[in-house]
Amino acid sequence: MFGRYLSTVGFPPAQNIYNHWRHWYQPGHLWWTQPPQLQHPSSSFSTVRHPFNRPPRPPDPYQWSSWRQTGVLPHTRGLHLSAGLMESTDRPPPQKRRKSAEGEISQRSPQHSPPKGSRSPKGSPEWLRNVSSIEVANRTSAVPELKRHWEDLSHLCKAAPSVNRGKQKWPFDFSVMSYNILSQDLLCDNTYLYRHCNPPVLDWRNRFPNIIKELEQYSADIMCLQEVQEDHYKQQIKPSLESLGYHCEFKRRTGLKPDGCAVIFKRERFSLVSCHPVEYFRRGVPLMDRDNVGLIVLLRPIDPHVSLSNICVANTHLLYNPRRGDIKLAQLAMLLAEISRVSQLPDSSVCPVLLCGDFNSVPWSPLYRFIKDRRLDYDGMPIGKVSGQEETPRGQRILNVPIWPRSLGISQQCQYENQTRDSELRDLEQTERESFTEASIEHCLRLTSAYSHHLKESGQPEITTCHSRTAITVDYIFYSAALGDVMAQAEYSAPPERGLQLLGRLALVGEEELQKVNGLPNQHNSSDHLPLLTRFRLHPQADS
């Protein structure tokens, strides 16, 4: 696939060159030696240990400089892609390694089929499938900027300050962003998803400035980022954001993938009380053999005039695989158990909670309903329908009862089992035993979504992620809604000082708007996800 781009700039034997790279790049090698004719004369590249205990990649197809540094491409002032010379993009995606059912690494068949879980995507737009090279050139020649407007909901919220003992107590307003910024490593591993993109758009040297510009423009007080690549985080993202007055916390995935989740907040608005990484991998528990993670921070709002409750902020990126809803639910249960522990107050209630991230589940799916309704009855539910990502999921395997084993240490109420006091535990032993035989799970958090998931004007679905195989919503900001909040369900709302009021949000767009800008990523939007941006109000505590 990489060879086709070289062919367009006047290098007919490009595929042969890349095959030569592949011959020398053996995944099993801890050390990698370049072929002599491709070695840089002044480079010690061949003797450098690669990070993450794995061999370095061949030149990045979207980092043109990496090809020049090896002498494959000459140094030129500009590259002019000729769409007419491109091969058809109907060509299957590249071969990809995957984990077999027995846990061993295996290679896919010569058909080079897409990764597991990518077929029959829900909402996959026809205009992004089977895109020809000429269409790519035409669509990317002058891509307009995606227009998003601010939805102001403040007129629906309590605006006047409360009065206590003759003193006015002003509320604390703050903004929150959730954004999957697309790891460059994952982009290069899944290039077939971006066949509609002009290759320079996918170059990290172009993507990074765009992403930082977006973050600086929106200037959110709290940012929850997913697919943050560790080397980019340490060398570029963290220094850039720290210079803008942010404090950064990061949790990398537990496996070989170098990306993870970050929670970032303005030092002038919040102070860090505690930080709690969550690893979903559990050795010896077959269901929990994936390397996804979460990150929870407890923040104290900074306001010298009033007493404000702490805010618990959780960020996660759940497993993608549409046919493993059991793993997604178990990962979510672990996260909810830790949120419940971190957010608990002395009176057994919880402080306001923000739950952000990429949940790889669509609105109104069973997993989404579980978060909002606090309960899921899953008797006879096919595993492939949990996330709703596929309209016609393959296979009809049913969720086990219970979904996760007791050895995980998480009850069916999404609580740590050892949190209960010994005296209470004796009384509840029988109840707990029975709960593990019922096809239902629960949690104690009262959460609602900051977005409605449909466009106000047309009623069409909102889109948060869009690439060659799908255009759907998978990203969310859930929050503890205060009584009277515009999005709150009356039975699930919290007292004003223990909940949040939604003041506004950056509107999402539909498929029609994304078609006009050639989908995602594009020259203005450098991820295959759109950032969610909201503004909340926290009222002072009554006794301050």
Automatic annotation (TrEMBL):
Example GO molecular function: catalytic activity
UniProt xrefs under InterPro entries: CCR4/nocturin_mRNA_transcr, Endo/exonu/phosph_ase_sf, Endo/exonuclease/phosphatase
Stretches assigned to coiled coil: none
Protein's name according to its UniProt entry: Protein angel homolog 2 isoform X1
Organism of provenance: Danio rerio
Gene: angel2
